[in-house]
Please model this.
Amino acid sequence: MAVRCLLNESRGALQRWLPALGGRDGANFGRRRGVVNCSRPARRASGETRTSSPTFGFLFDIDGVLLRGQYVIPAAKKAFQKLTDSTGQFCVPVAFVTNAGNCSRDGKAEELSNALGFKISPERVILCHSPLRLFHKFHDKCMLVSGQGPVAQNARDLGFRRIVTTEDVRKAFPLLDMVDQSRRPKELPPPTTDFPTIEGVILFGEPIRWETCLQLIIDVLLSNGNPGAELSAVPYPHLPVLACNMDLLWMAEAKMPRFGHGTFLMCLESIYKKMTGKELKYEALIGKPSTVTYRYAEHIIKQQMESRGWVSPLRHLYAVGDNPMADVYGANLYNRYLQAHAEVNVTAMTADTQGNECPELKKDSAVSLSCMPSCQSILVCTGVYNHHGDVPADCNVSMTETIFHGHRDFHFDPSLVEASHIVRDVDDAVELVFQKENWKRE
Model:
């Protein structure tokens, strides 16, 4: 029941944000899926191992799969030698889906290019905040942005036009930031009168000074966007909050996982509830394991296929990650969304007596359409998840006893953290997919 509710919430979010996407960022992104192209690829000639164009794509996590902090995981270079041709072009569609948000897309693409040794286009990189470019409703509102790195520039690149940072709030209202005694004003500052009213909050990623950001974000929510004001009652519902990256933990050079933005969100939620007695509500949660993020990634993969002239329909997505609570959970949840969509389409098409697509399917059939994409999760052992012992390629390790590290608003279902496949590293993941797809590089 919990998973059904979550799928319904995911469908609602998709219907809310994705259908009316205009311009270059939204071209064909929100097309209705009621009519499905069930055309089969051309029959293979004797001796051929695959069709002329790929029918699958890779969604690669970065931290713990390709990199550990600043260092490249050796298996990553081996894997990408198999994924690229002699000119450095990918022979199959590839997107990099990361919950990193304290950077720009160009910066992350350059980091990957330097690490892997060949050019990665920024268009292949999906940061946790990338789907925010679709949230046009907020682009003209005055938004407080929190995080580190180029958060203001990131917000502008995503389409937001009126931006206030936590540092802007701190400078305008210095009496609000009182934990660090060295930053307290020595004299009483004059009151600020021309500060804009904040209309929403975007949490890009974990900030540097948690105490300052926690205090100021709470101040903005409790003052209804006027942090210098004093209100007699707590406004509720509060201002819209959009949060990116729910990872409780992430893996860098250290032997143990580090706190992620999900930990910061837990602190914010707990403080807000302790102070108000009410739940902090999110307008949207973006980044893995959000279904919106995987839908956006599917769109990027299909764009690549179109630009390369690969005409075969996309049938399989393979999401390779190291975090069961983000990468595996998200891929499995999106696969359920796809299959639920497929079942609806089976009923709709077979009910149309004039239609001639998929005639072999019976009305109300519960099977999934073979021409609908699926999303399989592949868990590697080089990051957050580290199975102690020798892990054979494609083993089945139960995750049902694992403590749920996912976000508060994502209901726990043990089956959603069960990876479709568990392998040692990303090179084994690529080999596994090539074998499953009977794919050999030309």
Q: What stands out?
A: The longest helix spans residues 324-351. Residues 391 and 424 are 6 Å apart (CA to CA). Residues 1-5, 17-51, 345-370, 389-401 have pLDDT under 50 and may be disordered.
